[in-house]
Amino acid sequence: MNPKHLLLWIFILNLIQIQGQPLSHKSTGSNYDLKYHYLQFEVDPAVYYIKGKVTSYFKMLSESNSISFDLSDELTIDSVLFHDQKLTYTHSEDVLTANFPSNIPPDQLDSVSVFYEGSPAQSGGFGAFIKTLMMGFQLSGPYQSPMEQGIGGLVNKNCMIKQTPLT
Description:
By secondary structure, this protein is mainly beta. The chain contains 1 helix and 11 strands, in the order αβββββββββββ.
């Protein structure tokens, strides 16, 4: 089968599958304007596992001492860094909330880095690993990396570095 046709079919099947996904009614992203994601991750389609770091650049909309992202509970947080300091955080009900050491003022460009790993959720995502084809793709939002998952959560830019095994 032509690789372009295969990718088109995968895309179409994913569009169909998205209809069955629950909508997030969490309040992630309500207190900040997400500007940029710098995603670095290691993934091997032959192994159902992902390890990564996501640095999110944002501006607070109002003064706040925390930031929240949607992130599947299937993934484990190693650490959350802000200005090279580890932050305290909670991760439950598919929401990661990191607590800053002090309030962050509005309209100040800042960033936070989340280090995480684990096996993405088998259900609810877009089936991002296809072992028989040795292929993977990134369409799965909070099932593979921390992010804001809402209608207003449009990030201006993404930079993605994916490290995969050489075959």
